[in-house]
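If you are new to this repository, start here. Below is one unmodified record pulled from the training split, so you can see the exact layout before writing a loader.
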Amino acid sequence: MPPKKILTEATANNCVAFGRVRSNLKMGCVGLPNVGKSSLFNLMTEQSAAAENYPFCTIEPNEARCVVPDPRYDFLCKIWNPPSQYPAFLQVTDIAGLIKGASEGAGLGNAFLSHIQAVDGMYHVVRAFDNDEVLHVDDSVDPVRDLDTIQSELCKKDLDILQRAIVAEEAIVRKAGGKFKMLPLFYETTGKIKALLEQDKPVRDGEWTSAEIELINEKLSLITTKPVIYLVNLTMKDYLRQKCKYLGKVAEWVKAHGGTGADIIPFSVEFEEKLWSLREDPAAQKAWLDEVKVPSKLGKITTEGFTKLGLQYYFTAGEKEIRCWPIKRGTLAPQAAGVIHGDFERGFIKGEIVAYQDFHDLCGGGKSMAPIKAAGKYRMEGKGYEVQDGDICHWQFNVAPPKKK
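And here is the target side for that same chain:
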């Protein structure tokens, strides 16, 4: 369970405060059919998942991972140039389109909703372009209506999950012969959840104590606890001019439903596909980007997804390997070391820590830690140290060999 401070900050910023405490969390691409989910997935992960112009082209979810771009990692690789280089990765799932009535079995229904349950955060892809050649499941483009549809279906599914959880808890009490009563916290929390969901409001937008969040994580598996990034798919023309008649309405909807402007990323599948088509000619690709003066958003989408899941990473660096080790924000040194191997956590002694920025500013382009030590920026940290994003770490541990019988 993350520290209380982390929970409070996370729920206030639409970040993950619920769900699994792991370092290999997943983002899922969610939205109506034919809004660009599979095309985006292909571009992010360099895969070739089907992306055809008809509803429900994607049936089983496609899964892959994409590199989290980071100039800090690039700098360390350039300095050491080791034979092994491992960047951070984001796990991404392409989930088939939902339609109105999915919570009651419409379209491909509950199977898809269960796929959303299996991810930890959502890229909600919204179509914000008119094109008669690309079918729309409702025959007309209206991003606000589409946002309402998806949120309503997810809230209805959560109501069903909630009711099943209540029935299961009551069964446990009956099996105990009435000896134990359900905790007041369970009644109060499920009552608050139900009140939100019946208004088509996601659970993540409620105000929760750490005890309530712990109960939700333990007893429930709700879809609307998951953090969301809204990806607004524009035409290339609108993307290049950074204008779209739908963007203002989408921003108003997101802010009215607990999000902020930072949760919205306008992008263009059309633009990204054009850029991808030039990948084998870097000079032509650079010339085109210089001409249009608008960058790709794929890196930002990946990085924001990784951050939205409450993830960060530290580095290990040396002659043999540069590697990013993903951890949850708020992770203490022994548990961060344990990501490498369980023995590192069990036999943890201390960590030798250098903040990335200190290394960057003081190394002088060399591999030696001598100038960092001379500046007093090379630190020894114990079990209570909270590892920071971008720390360069070397762990000291000692696990005694098993005693001979």
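Two things worth knowing about this chain: The CA atoms of residues 114 and 223 lie 9 Å apart. The longest strand covers residues 321-328.
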